[in-house]
Give the backbone structure.
Amino acid sequence: MSNPIKRIMVYVDGTEQSVTAAQYAICLASFSGAELIAYYVINTRAVEDLLKARIFLKDEQVEYEHDMEADAERYLNYINELAVKKGVSVIKKRSRGSVHREIVDSIEADDVDLLVIGELSRIRSRRDEFFDETERAMRAVSCSVLIVKDEDRVWEMYESLV
């Protein structure tokens, strides 16, 4: 039987949980030989909402989006460094827009078999659950989803890779 997982996507959003998910995805890619995509979405929808609510001025929106672009580059490069140390190649990918919609579209476009995400934040209300973009994506994608937990165990697994 051929490997059922040919392409893995790890969603990176700059949180510690997403870095842990990336370490786990690197291990999975190493063990399975699957292709690994590190994906970052620049959440322009949230910024547009802040502008509409008059929390941001247009100049502030442009500056904030520039900062988010720099964050995306920094985190994708960091994930790439982690992977290279373990002999795994990574396709770095980023897009702009609504996080859940961009993830769903990218999963389809790139024919991804497995989405790897970091542990979800604690949901305090049904309203928070509806607005958590990563959770919305997790529920909407067509592929299997792996939620990575236990940062210490993942670090040990990552470190043990040769």
About this structure: Residues 7-160 form a domain with the Rossmann fold fold (CATH 3.40.50.620). Strands lie at 7-11, 35-43, 90-97, 114-118, 144-148. The first strand starts at residue 7 and ends at 11.
